[in-house]
Amino acid sequence: MSGTPVLEIDAITVGYGGVPAIRDLSLSVGAGEILAVLGPNGAGKTTTLLAAVGALPLMSGTVTALGAPVDGAVERNARRGVTLVPDTRGVFHTLSVADNLRLAKRKGGGDLDLVYEYFPKLRSMRTRRCGNLSGGEQQMLALAKALLAKPRVLLIDELSLGLAPIAVQELLPRLRSIADDQNMAVVLVEQHIDLALGIADAAIVLHHGRVALAASASDLRNRRDSVEAAYFGRSDQSDVAS
Ligand code: ATP
After folding, report:
1. Going by CA atoms, what residue is nearest to atom 14 of ligand 1?
2. Measured between alpha carbons, how far is 144 from 138 in angstroms, rounded to an integer?
3. Lowest-pLDDT range, 94-103, 115-124, 131-140?
4. Pocket of ligand 1 contains residue 42 by CB under 6 Å
5. Atom of ligand 1 nearest to the CA of 43
6. If 20 and its partner were Cys, which of 9, 15, 125, 181 is the partner (CB 3.0–4.6 Å)?
7. Best CA proximity match to 52, nearest among 19, 29, 32
8. How many angstroms does the Cα of residue 208 sit away from the middle of ligand 1?
9. What is the mean pLDDT of residues 193-222?
10. pLDDT tens for residues 18-76?
């Protein structure tokens, strides 16, 4: 990774009701970089994102974003530019596309024209009620809304949840160009491994709440068998980044 990390998670243990769901987990992402977080159901991907935005208390370890500790004040962290796109999409179904975006702009102050430039389809659908959009279109809107918060660190939980691969193929490369254009750090939880590795700079595979594999995306594209092994908890510990 090049430059100073804008998000640095150092040896965190986080859980629910005193029971750890992720243990001793570390990762870092630099400006303009995309880190893919992969792993089977229940591996701890969502928990990692929630901890990174301050939505879950740390049992141990530290989270630092943009040079300051991330604490439990989720709204304040968001105002500093640490933004989560949850897998529940966060769009208002009874409102139009334009009204959803206007609300997000009022709250976050981002550039609506730029967002319409990134997603021209949203401009053409701006009078449509969000409840009538396809899953892919709703995800596009969720991402557009998040960008209006002017994120410096964007954490995305399964953007492609329930989407056809073709919709994911459209969204993920768009995310890559936005990260480049905005010099934005992205942590991307994703089930479509090959599509995620296709746009990411680096990736980690979680298994049972621990980092089972960490490497550059280009390395992992050539070592798909290692990724599979990590999914099933059979990775070589030498693969784990220190
Ligand atoms: P998925 O791909 O299914 O969303 P994930 O990798 O995001 O899974 P997490 O949602 O982070 O996994 O869950 C990690 C572990 O923590 C799991 O064992 C899960 O059952 C547990 N867990 C998650 N949320 C809670 C909660 N609110 N209360 C108790 N346990 C939870």
Report:
1. 44
2. 10
3. 131-140
4. yes
5. 6
6. 15
7. 29
8. 10
9. 96
10. 999 999 999 999 999 999 999 999 999 999 999 999 999 999 999 999 999 998 788 88
Per-residue pLDDT tens digits for 60-92: 999 999 999 998 788 888 888 999 987 767 788
Ligand 1 neighbour 43 (Cβ under 6 A)? yes
Structural domains in the chain, sorted by start: 1-81+151-242 (3.40.50.300), 92-150 (no CATH)
The verdict on the CB of residue 39 being under 6 Å from ligand 1 is yes
**Which protein residue's CA is at the shortest distance from atom 10 of ligand 1?**
46
Judge if the beta carbon of residue 3 lies within 6 A of ligand 1: no
Residue of 13, 14, 16 to test ligand 1 pocket, by largest number of atoms within 8 Å of CB:
16
Rg of the chain taking only CA atoms, in angstroms: 17
Tokens of 12: 């965190």
